[in-house]
């Protein structure tokens, strides 16, 4: 196969290199990216509009046109309806997602079952190569791809490809007859294996060492790690091994089974995840599916490894050989399914530690405690900065253990009702200021207050960003006529208010606090 001609691309970031590559190297590609700098890509607030525009373009053009869009990971959950629509309509859209933290990876994994294929690159070179792999595979499979990659800040020199529309191998790949099994839901097992073959074929066009799932480490390893897209070296692994999954959705069970050494007695999901809605990480559930699959059962006399879950905010690549050896030693001592924090064992400090159970928690600490409650985590994922939990959401109190007054629905409802009254006063104070022509207001503050007043109940407009802008403008004003507005400035942002509780609240039917809340008639 003739090598693809390359040129050196000096890009402001890996994100820019990926976008440039996807936009400029494949014929008839529509790029919905805007200005290509890392900061602007990540800070752009129009991601939903971008992806919606991408979906609109994809619905209008023929399936020979690739559509690329770059969004931040934090926006993915809000984009689930659009992602599902793209998947159902089999649109060849590639969503590039820069990732720089465990929070970003958690957001990517939260949309793993949206119907899109999920591909992760581990290096700057892979990021550029896999942007084309995703585009070519999306084109051939009729499946949208989410391509996530480590976003390196600062200038990056990578190898980007010249336009390849005339390349014989690329043309042959795209024009080859589709096997019927290549099309279909990416959750289907046969479709997963067919998609694996297509992605593997696309990868070899750029580097023959690429594979959707790879194994590295000792051939006779007794303990094997499984990672999502992270590259561990044989030197770091020591006597252990690692199955490294780049194509996470659809996951080829057959590929994982084939790569797992016969000697493996323990299979450890090494996951970089935070804000878990369950005790077990997402990769653990996929590995459990592998070990109970038809493909596994078809192997006669093969013992099923003990499955373990190692979850922390630390990337697998942060572990040195000595630190990973400590984790391996700990895992080898476990004789039944269990989960543990590998970063804590290795002495790596992360931000994935919940506060201790203490009385008198602040509002911020109460919100953090919601992360230990499954429904609470769902709320945080959906509403993020807007989430306001009015009652004390400590896990012990809401389950009725030595219940605190602050955990009751009556208390929380009182807090919410009071906050709504205060916001009503803020609306009146802003209205009075805008109507009073004698109040000296800067043009910027007058415009911002008018914008807020006209859309105060629209969370997309009455956001924390607008609230911060207004508060900064208020600080610049000296007139005492704004004192009433200043006193109520904490209510500019439209919050999503909730009470968090359990079935303890339903006891004493008709007389419990939750019934008082419902009977009040307040929204």
Architecture overview:
- Helix 6 packs across helix 8.
- The chain is built from 22 helices and 16 strands.
- The N terminus is likely disordered.
- With 523 residues, the protein is of the alpha/beta class.
- A six-stranded mixed sheet has the order 2-3-4-6-5-11, sandwiched between helices. Strands 8-10-9-12-13-14 form a six-stranded mixed sheet.
Keywords:
single chain, 16 strands, globular, alpha/beta, six-stranded mixed sheet
User: How many E strands?
Assistant: 16
- The coarse overall form would be globular
Largest sheet: 6 strands, mixed
By secondary-structure content and strand pairing, the structural class works out as: alpha/beta
- Proportion of helical residues: 40-55%
User: Which ranges are low-confidence, i.e. pLDDT below 50, for 5 or more consecutive residues?
Assistant: 1-12, 23-48, 50-64, 154-166, 178-189, 352-363, 394-403
- The average pLDDT score comes to 75
Distance from first to last alpha carbon: 66 Å
Number of helices: 22
Gist of the model:
With 523 residues, this protein is α/β, with parallel strands linked by helices. It has helices at residues 14-24, 38-43, 47-60, 80-88, 102-110, 124-141, 168-175, 189-204, 234-237, 253-259, 282-291, 294-297, 321-332, 342-346, 363-369, 374-383, 395-398, 409-435, 443-454, 464-476, 483-487, 513-519; strands at residues 6-11, 29-32, 66-70, 93-99, 117-120, 145-150, 156-161, 213-217, 223-228, 241-245, 247-249, 266-272, 306-312, 338-340, 387-389, 496-498.
What is the topological layout?
Elements: E1 6-11, H1 14-24, E2 29-32, H2 38-43, H3 47-60, E3 66-70, H4 80-88, E4 93-99, H5 102-110, E5 117-120, H6 124-141, E6 145-150, E7 156-161, H7 168-175, H8 189-204, E8 213-217, E9 223-228, H9 234-237, E10 241-245, E11 247-249, H10 253-259, E12 266-272, H11 282-291, H12 294-297, E13 306-312, H13 321-332, E14 338-340, H14 342-346, H15 363-369, H16 374-383, E15 387-389, H17 395-398, H18 409-435, H19 443-454, H20 464-476, H21 483-487, E16 496-498, H22 513-519
Helix pairs in contact: 1-6, 6-8, 18-19, 19-20
